[in-house]
Amino acid sequence: MNFGTYAGRALHTAVDLINSDDLSTGEAAATLLRDRGWTVDQPLTPDEVERLRALRPVLRYIFTSSTPHDGVRHLNAVLADMRALPQLTNHDGAWHWHYVQPDADLVDRVTTRCAVALLSVVADAGASRLRTCAADDCTNVFVDLSRNSARRFCDARTCGNRTHAAAYRARRRDNQPQ
């Protein structure tokens, strides 16, 4: 499953924001956004950082809601609150969507693009692709973009390996003669 660069960046931004531990400074927040292709010329203000922190549980809800309908309703309400109005533009050379007015601030742009990206996954591939990590000690979320929709861990190298190693040790321990 592939989302275009523009939508993909917003999707990865949403996951990174939800899973982020360090949004303590304007520079940390700016770095997170820059790493996902956002144009951020200066550190975010304390108010912007607080708004990004507040956005994390708002976006997380679609991953953890009891039904897909609840999660979709929730993000639709976010878009309504933002007065999102999709407009196709090519001001940077490539056609892409804007969901808020050109004078909207960075956090409003992040909010709308992330919400639309998550809703696009539900529309294009189903809510079951929005998952929480299966590792017992991890609360991270991820979007399963695998062909067969079989991904279980936010990161196979850490959470997956740790879980599989623990299961192996438990099996060996259970099979030891008493």
From TrEMBL:
InterPro entries: ABATE, ABATE_dom_sf, Znf_CGNR. SUPFAM superfamilies: Jann2411-like (SSF160904). It comes from the Bacteria. This is Putative RNA-binding Zn ribbon-like protein. It holds the Pfam family zf-CGNR. Residues 129-172 form the Zinc finger CGNR domain.
